Amino acid sequence: MSSTPTKVREEGTSRFPRVISYVTIKLDPVKSVEIFEDDEATTAAQGAVSKVYVGYIPCHGAWRDDEDEENANYLIHLLRSGLPQSSPEEFIEEDMCTPVFPNTDHPSREPLMPSDPLPTGWTHCYQASFETVTLRVPWAFAKTSLRVTLPQMERARHGIAIVEDEARRAKQVQAQAPQGANLAPMAECEESSAHSNKKNSVSTPPQSVSSRGRTISVASLNEEVALKPVPPPIAAVAYDLAAVQTLEDPQDLLAEIKLIETIYKAARARQLVRRARAKEETARAIEETKKIDEATFGHSIKRSSLPRANGDTPESSTAPESSPDSNHNPVRLVVGFFGNHRFWASPGKHRPTILGALRKWTSCFCNCSKPSSEENVAE
Questions:
Q1: Chain centre to alpha carbon of residue 209
Q2: What is the pLDDT of residue 188?
Q3: Separation between Cα atoms, residue 38 and residue 54, nearest integer Å
Q4: Residue spans with biased composition (Polar residues) (predicted)?
Q5: CB 73 within 8 A of CB 46
Q6: Cis before 250 (ω within 30)
Q7: Torsion sign across C-alpha atoms 43, 49, 51, 57
Q8: Per-residue model confidence (pLDDT) at position 295
Q9: N- to C-terminal Cα distance for the chain?
Q10: Radius of gyration of the chain from Cα atoms?
């Protein structure tokens, strides 16, 4: 059975990737921006260089997107060859890392012991405390036979080392701060350290991207692009560490991520412009349709013909005049007759009158212009 991840769960596979695992990492720039269906973004993404890196997954990431059902996100500590570079402006020192066996070169820390030895070609392996990324990975299933993990005790030692480095860094920041400055704690957990370090980590703040029904203005496009967070890039990961001959520099991965973010923001800006223009064109088309309708049919309703708020009826002048033939209107004749002849009080007395009236109504309904002689006699 192949160890390649698949969408279909087969016998002997489990959810992929699993946390506490070491994985190979290769960004997918095209898939990361394909949501825009933007040819310019796709072309730029196709030209991006993507190397293969290695990292350890301690937990799921903090990114939240309820609309993304295809991917899961993970926090990843990158594995490097050699000590990380110090960064005085970021208060990071080169010994803020932990060696990984068989490497034992560190002034104060014992190496981490993975469940299986790392490939022999990898030398001087370290996990830097502040070289972390958050990436999205497509949901899949895979075999775990090639999976290399970090046992529980090793994870605990690694977590303690990170907390110590965060405390050292916070202390240095406090020492450099102006007298009386009120600084918030720099790091409270492993994930927060990744978010606070702009140079040596790339991750995304924990906020939702859902924004249904929002009106987009062309004047605010730059602000919209700047404020809305960029989702983590999509990456292909694998358990097969032996497929990587040498470890790449994690700083190169951070640069690749920044390039994808740039492409993503540009594509989103173009999308917002298209939406704003489409909205303006729709509004313009609706207005033109209204003008054509009014000019053609004249359906504008006058205020005088509308029902009044106080319940008064319109003036009699607005009512239509009666037609010349209103005296021969059958309805008017019926109403008038029953108003003048209350024959129901004594039906026998007014029977001839009723018969005469019925004949008259019949002639009216039959469009007879003159009453018959019988009608005259009855009347």
A1: 5
A2: 44
A3: 30
A4: 199-213
A5: no
A6: no
A7: negative
A8: 84
A9: 109
A10: 42
Alpha helices in the chain (DSSP H): 29-33, 39-46, 152-176, 190-196, 221-227, 250-297, 330-340, 351-365, 373-378
HSE (side-chain half, CA atoms, 13 Å) at 135: 33
Whole-angstrom Cα distance, residue 68 to residue 234? 12
Listed residue (344, 342, 339, 337) closest to 358, CA to CA: 337
The DSSP call for residue 12 is T
Query: Would you write out the chain's pLDDT as a tens digit for each of its 379 residues?
Result: 456 777 777 777 888 999 999 999 999 999 999 999 999 999 999 999 999 999 999 999 999 888 888 999 999 999 999 999 999 999 999 999 999 999 999 999 999 999 999 998 898 999 999 999 999 999 999 888 899 999 999 999 999 999 999 999 999 998 887 766 555 544 444 444 444 444 455 544 444 444 444 444 555 655 665 578 899 999 999 999 999 999 999 999 999 999 999 999 999 999 888 888 888 889 888 988 888 888 887 655 554 555 555 555 555 444 444 454 555 555 555 556 555 655 544 454 455 555 565 566 556 555 544 444 444 444 4
Q: How far apart are CA 148 and CA 309, in angstroms?
A: 79
Tracing tokens 């409270």 back to the chain, one arrives at: 188
Report which residue type is found at 352.
P
DSSP 143: E
Token pair of 226 as six digits: 């700047």
Helix %, strand %, coil % of the chain (to 5):
40, 15, 40
Cα–Cα distance, 71 to 81 (Å, whole number): 29
**Rounded to whole angstroms, what are the CA distances from 117 to 106, 146, 367?**
19, 12, 110
Q: Is the peptide bond before 17 cis (omega within 30 degrees of 0)?
A: yes
Q: Is 280 left (phi over 0), alpha (psi -120 to 50) or beta?
A: alpha
| Tokens 């009666």 belong to residue | 322
Which residues on neighbouring strands pair with residue 135, listed in sequence order? 74
290-323 b/e (C-beta count within 10 Å ≥ 16 → b): eeeeeeeeeeeeeeeeeeeeeeeeeeeeeeeeee
